[in-house]
């Protein structure tokens, strides 16, 4: 029997419920993540809180440092207390932290708010990925994760419109008040989101799992023969035998991928303004970039279910590097729009397919830890990317920002490509080996 829940035809409504609620949670995650980059040109123009380009890069790194902490902690915590409780806590945390940003009177207080928001943002994403992996129909895990991640980019699009429609008339603080609204979603999430069946079984809560499975007419996942034990036991499982090589390859690929994702997400509007585009056009780039992300998630997810997530990720990173490098060249506006859209298609889904590979190939008891630590190691790159962009802008070397981000894409292509060549089909019921096709 597969270690993942096998959904019956009627039980598919449980998958829809889980994916729908997680989609909304990740939508708010994307809004909160991208809002800083969307309002940053306005804050720099108005010299809000006395902000400089160098400080702006530091603030972007504060949020991603918080995400690093959240992602590293989330896997272990979720494997111990449950995915549902952690998701509720994460949405609450990043919503309240946005309130701190809205009322901040100094760069230090604003930075504290962004750091705390980052902890919640970093913890939510790998947890939501683990949740939908548990309930994804057999053989459809990558496309289900891709569908979930479209919410992140829908949040990015929403952030651009918040900046365009609210910031100009009401000021930058109003944008962060909008990011407090997800607090209203917390009771809904707590009431209707079911706990992970595989988590319940792994923790020995079999009766609770059996009741939930019966309510939605789904098959109860098989016990793996072990429960989540000590806090570091699940992490140690990622390094047993030769798996440490595969684990490190994915961590390194994630580092370059998130350096690229968050460097571009933070600085795209500002860098494009530096290329001579107006603020309205710069925010249009954010919309196109995230629209491309939505398309890319669906295309990459479907392709990965057929050809293997690591192979698709490697090709996507190569195409991303080309697109990001082209953005350093001043082109006609229409052509630039096309390049930004295509870059969004490949960049965002390339990183997500790393998560998909790790999630699909992990044992249920270790899944949140595996995805969380892959995401967490990548967050070191996410911290470095915004800081690097700020330093280059402060030195009046903005053109080199796109080149540096493109090189990060090349490095991830190499690491994920090597991982794809090394991967073998899973041969055991626990699904410990990372797979190239499923």
Describe this structure in words.
There is one protein chain. By secondary structure, this protein is mostly helical. Helices cover 78% and strands 0% of the residues. Helix 3 packs antiparallel against helix 4, helix 3 packs antiparallel against helix 6 and helix 5 packs antiparallel against helix 12. It is globular, with a radius of gyration of 21 Å. The N terminus and C terminus are likely disordered.
Attribute tags:
16 helices, disordered C terminus, disordered N terminus, 438 residues, mainly alpha
Mean pLDDT: 78
Cα end-to-end separation: 15 Å
Strand fraction: under 5%
Let me know the number of strands. 0
Percentage of helical residues?
over 70%
Number of helices: 16
Radius of gyration: 21 Å
- In one word, what is the shape? globular
> Helix/strand-derived class?
mainly alpha
Unreliable spans: 1-11, 225-230, 425-438
Main sheet specs: none
H-E string: HHHHHHHHHHHHHHHH
């Amino acid at each position: 029997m597969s270690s993942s829940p096998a959904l019956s035809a009627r039980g598919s409504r449980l998958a829809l419920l889980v994916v729908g609620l997680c989609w909304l949670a990740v939508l708010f995650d994307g809004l909160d993540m991208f809002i800083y980059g969307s309002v940053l040109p306005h804050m720099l123009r108005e010299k809000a809180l006395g902000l400089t380009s160098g400080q702006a890069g530091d603030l972007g790194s504060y949020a991603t440092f918080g995400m690093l902490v959240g992602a590293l902690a989330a896997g272990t915590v979720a494997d111990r207390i449950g995915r549902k409780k952690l998701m509720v806590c994460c949405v609450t945390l990043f919503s309240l932290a946005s309130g701190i940003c809205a009322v901040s009177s100094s760069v230090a207080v604003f930075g504290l708010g962004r750091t705390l928001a980052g902890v919640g943002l970093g913890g939510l994403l790998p947890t939501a990925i683990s949740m939908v992996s548990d309930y994804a129909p057999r053989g459809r895990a990558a496309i289900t994760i891709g569908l979930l991640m479209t919410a992140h980019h829908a949040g990015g699009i929403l952030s651009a419109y918040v900046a365009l429609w609210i910031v100009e008339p009401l000021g930058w603080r109003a944008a962060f008040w909008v990011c407090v609204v997800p607090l209203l979603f917390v009771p809904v999430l707590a009431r209707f989101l079911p706990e992970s069946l595989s988590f319940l079984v792994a923790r020995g809560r079999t009766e609770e799992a059996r009741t939930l499975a019966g309510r939605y007419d789904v098959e109860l996942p098989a016990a793996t023969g072990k429960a989540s034990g000590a806090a570091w036991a699940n992490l140690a499982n990622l390094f047993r035998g030769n798996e440490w090589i595969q684990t490190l390859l994915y961590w390194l690929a994630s580092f370059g991928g998130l350096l690229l994702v968050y460097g571009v997400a933070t600085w795209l509007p500002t860098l494009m303004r530096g290329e001579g585009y107006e603020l309205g056009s710069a925010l249009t780039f954010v919309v196109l970039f995230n629209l491309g992300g939505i398309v890319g998630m669906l295309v990459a997810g479907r392709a990965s279910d057929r050809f293997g997530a690591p192979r698709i990720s490697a090709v996507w990173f190569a195409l991303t590097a080309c697109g990001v490098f082209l953005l350093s060249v001043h082109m006609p506006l229409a052509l630039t729009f096309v390049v930004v859209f295509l870059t969004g298609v490949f960049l965002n889904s390339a990183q997500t397919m790393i998560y998909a590979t790790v999630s699909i190939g992990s044992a249920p008891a270790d899944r949140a830890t595996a995805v969380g630590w892959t995401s967490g190691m990548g967050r070191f790159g996410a911290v470095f990317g915004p800081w690097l962009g700020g330093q280059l802008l402060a030195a009046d070397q903005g053109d080199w920002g796109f080149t540096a981000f493109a090189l990060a894409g090349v490095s991830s292509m190499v690491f994920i490509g090597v991982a794809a060549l090394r991967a073998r089909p899973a041969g055991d019921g626990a699904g410990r080996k990372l797979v190239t096709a499923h």
